[in-house]
Structure formats: structure tokens, C-alpha cells
Amino acid sequence: MVANLQSCRNGHCVERSQWSECDNDASFVQSLMSVQVQGGQCIYVMIHALTPKIANLKNIMGEGSAINSGEFIGCIIFWLVTCTFLVIPVPKMKGLIYAKLIVFVISAVAMCAWTLTKAGGVGAIAHQKGTATGSERTWLLVRFFFLGAANCATFASNAADFQRYARRPNDVILGNLAGFPLSNFIVCIIGNLVASSSQVIYGEVIWNPLTFLDMLQTTEYSSANRAGCFFIAACFAYSAIFSSIFENSLPAGNDIAALFPKYLTVRKGFFICAVISFVINPWYLLGSAGIFISFLASYQIFLSAITGVLLCHYYIISRGYLKIDDLYTSDKNGVYHYFHGWNWRAYVAYVVGIIPNFYGFLNNMGVSAPTGVTKAYYFAYEIGLILSFGVYWGCCYFYPPQLVMPLNEWHEPKDYVRPEERAEVLEGMPAETWGDNIDGVSKVVQEDVKELM
Asked: Contact, 373 vs 360, CB < 8 A?
């Protein structure tokens, strides 16, 4: 399993992969910001269930903030708790992750059942018929289908950072093909049912479940309501902690450490990401900066261009092969040094992948644009990915890099042995008896050993 760092290095080069890494880091930080605010709201609901005084605190957050003073206290507590969990080694979090899955399912189903019971049913919203017809309806379906796909852009680019902890490469296939889309679909269904019940109870649609929870206990501050709100909010907070770690802190830590490997470890990268996401005051950005939020929502055009290059290089150009030793050296003779430390093919493909979508990107931030541009932007992620993929393939075809594998062969290494240990792997075994199927020794390792002998 290959981490995102290694993917960026073999596609962009060892010394000049910083841009793609920074690009990914920016998406991780913005995602972590929203999770921190949500986690802070969870903590606030829990504290409010214990004492009503926190709801009466003077609001000093100022205009434009998405949270009040009580929720700000919740954000601080959530941030400190998350930082505490960052100390735990990732492999030892396995049990905590399984617990998160159980906790979230129980809390989501509990809130859905509770609110539907209080509303006496799913409400009118769930039974409403669509008002759009004809081409308008078709374009709405297309728009939101591809927007849903684009929301997976960050996951697609950083999945390798945590999936590399799998014992076998095939262990992640079922989760990617079935678990990921199915879980997202179920969460969307539950969220819509809860929002529909809020209209029946309060006469308005409340899309934020944490705001809905707090309104439930504020309206009727009884022991039963407070206990229910505390339990559900605590489960949500627990889930948010590990979402922030595995979806944001972990991949960001890998990339930040890669920027300055001499001075930073992956764990230090975790904390740097955590500090950055807090000091830029996400509650103000989420509350008032509409253009900034539109920019973050449009980050797909940058990630799609990077993803296209990485996919093409791994599956088409190198056919799965990684010269692992060369990924960690600045030696000019290394296969990933490219042209004076730059893989210009990757940057050409990156820019070409962005250009067609850039007008739509500006339109999404408020710049006027024709209807055709707006509709074309619905396919921004797909356009960027396909263009960057194709351009990179073309550049490598006409100006091949040092490491190119035949398309009819697959060279993904099944194991890796450090150079100083390679001779020991086949010690006492004549080269002519190695064969291709020796247990635990791949053909790639055999070739590397031959080079040393």
C-alpha cells in the first residue's frame, strides 16, 4: 500500500512534490476546521445538558461568527481532547475505530427514532413531490450527482495515507466499493428524516442536527430530554474526534512531515495541522466568509488535476512499480529526479487540468459567467481528472521519463527488503534456483539482489 506522499514523489519528483503536498494539506486543514466546529457544538450540547448557565453566557464572539461563547468553550475542549488522542500510535487505535462505528450508528438511529416519534411521523418534507420538470430537473439531478462525487475528492487523494495500514492490499476493496458509498447514503437518509421532523416540531427545517438537539432540550429542559441530548451529543463528539484524526490529521501529518523531513516527524505534523486549523479561527470563516467557503467547496478542481497525474503515473507509466530507494534520496541519478529536480510533465498536466474549470471556479465565487460555463462546472472534477490524466500520458509518451514500464506488464512490488538485508533474503540459494514464485521473495526483490551481487 502506497501513501499519498510516495505517490506525489514518484509523479512529481522527490524535491519538487511540495506543491501537490501543500495542495492536499490545504484541503485537510479546511475539512478539519469544519469538524472542529461541529465537535465544539457537540461538547456545548453536552455541557448545556448538565447546566443551563452556559446558554446564558455573554456572547463575545462578535458578528459573523458561526458559534457563540458557549460553543467556543466547546471548541476548545474538543480541540484539547483530539490532541490527546493524537499521541496514541495509529495501529493501536483499531479498537477505538470499531467502537466509533458502533457508537455513531447507535446515536444516529437513536436521534432519528426520537425525533420522528416526537413529530408523529416523517413530516411533510419527506412526502413532497419535486417541483422541477424537464431540462431543469435533469440538470439538477446531474449537478447534485456530480457534486456528491466531487465531495469524495479529498478522500480519493488521501485514502492511501490510512489504507496503507491494512495488512493486505485487497483488504480495502470492499470498504471502498461498498462500505464508503453505502454509509454515506444511509447517513444522508437519516439526516433528511431528522430535518423533516424538525419542521413538524418547530415549523422550520433545521439542517444542523446539533442545533436541533440543543433546541429540543432548551424547549423542554427536563431530565429525560437532557439525558437523551447528552448521550447523542457525546456519541457524535466521539465520532467527530476520530473522523478528524483519520480523515484530516493523519494524512496532513504525513504531508507536513514530508515538507521538512529533517526536522518534522509525522506525529509533529499531526499537531501542526491541529494548531493551524485552530488559530485561523474557523468559526468566523464558516460563519461569514461566503466567498471563502465557496472557494473551499471548489477545491475539487485542484485535487482532480493532482489525482489524474497520480493515477496515470502509477497505473499507466510505471505499471505499479516504485523504485522505493529512489523515493528517499536527492541523488541526481535517481529515477525520480527527472529534469533538474522537476517532472515538468506533471506540472503541464496539472495546469491543463485546471484551466477549463477555472472560469466556473470564479463563477462559483461570485463572478458572472454564461449558463454554459455554470453547467460545465458541474463536471469539473471529471473534466480535470480526465484532462490531466490524458495530458500526462501524452507527455510521457512523446517525452518518456527514465522509468517507464510496458503496458502489457504489471510490476507492483509485493514486498520490500532494505538494501543492507537483501543479500540475506536469498542467502544460500543460488540465483539460478530462485524462480518467480519463491514464497516471500518477489521477482522485483530478486532483480535488486542481482544488482548488488
From this structure: yes
pLDDT in tens, 64-91: 677 888 988 998 999 899 888 888 887 7
* Residue type at 34 in one-letter notation: S
Q: Rounded distance, CA 247 to CA 245, Å?
A: 6
What the block records as the C-alpha cell of 232 is 447523542
Task: Produce one character per residue of 336-351: b if its CB has 16 or more CB atoms within 10 Å, e if not.
Answer: bbbeeeebebbbbbbe
Cα–Cα distance measured from residue 453 to residue 450, given in angstroms and rounded to the nearest whole number:
5
Q: How far apart are CA 351 and CA 391, in angstroms?
A: 10
User: In this structure, are residues 80 and 274 in contact, taking their beta carbons and an 8 Å threshold?
Assistant: no
pTM value > 0.85: no
Which of 313, 377, 297, 380 lies closest to 345 in space, CA to CA? Answer: 313
The one-letter code for the residue type at 28 is F
Task: Assess contact for 387 and 352: CB atoms under 8 A.
Answer: yes
Whether the predicted pLDDT of 294 surpasses 60: no
CA distance 23 to 387: 18
308: its cell numbers: 489524474
